Amino acid sequence: xIEAKNLTKVYGDGTKALDSLTFSSSSKSLTLLGKxxxxxxxxxxxxxxxxxxxxxxxxxxxxxVVKDAxxxxxxxxxxPQEAKPVGISSPYEHVAMYLTSRGLSISEAISRSRSVLKDxxxxxxxxxxxxxxxxxxxxxxxxxxALASDAEVVFLDEPTTGLDPLSRxxxxxxxxxxxxxxxxxxxxxxxxxxxADELLMINRGKLVMSGSPSSLLKKFEGMVxxxxxxxxxxxxxxxxxxxxxxxxxxxxxxxxxPISLEDLFIMYAGDQELTYDSS
Length: 279
Known about the structure:
ATP binding, AAA+_ATPase, disordered C terminus, four-stranded antiparallel β-sheet, 2 domains, 29% strand, Rossmann fold, 279 residues, ATP-binding, 9 helices
């Protein structure tokens, strides 16, 4: 279970990244959503004991991330967004060294490294220096390290950034087959839809909403998105939401799109308020 109670983080320059965040989740796969700067990465770093909170508390599988930090580190694996590979080391060496650092024997580390590198599609480049690989492949090296860890809880901060659609689907299939609990952040709404048992949306360090994708999308039940008109501005695009039986008026004049998690993001990750157009 992941729990937070009045969790607050204020950086030295006065930036309040988390503002009394309170929630609990026992879901196998928890996905954090929010704009850049919403507080997602800060939250992930606190949960994985990489960052101290200013106040409040957080628990991972019952262990306090401050008081029981050593115990938390034994049961979690974390791949931060800013992780960079050691250029001269191969993917094979990265995974194997990571596993031995977690206490696995050399033989077990080698066996597990071989298996996971095949699963994530890195077997053909397993012996190449990582600095010779593409950005997407470098990211897959870190995904492989997390997958191989067999930790109780795996934290992944934007795990598929830079991956092509096929590689992303490969990673999704592996993540869904893992026995570990997953906590991840993503800006890909289709990834959140594919992987999340529960969504947690944060805005300006505060909890905006939480729930399963299907339950949250019920807020838009019976509606479609119209682009090109409306009161909601996203960049240069104006948006409104109308009921399906009213959509025919807009056909041929504007772009009509079905509702998706992208609409939750538009309406709740920022400062918009959901309005229904009945004109």
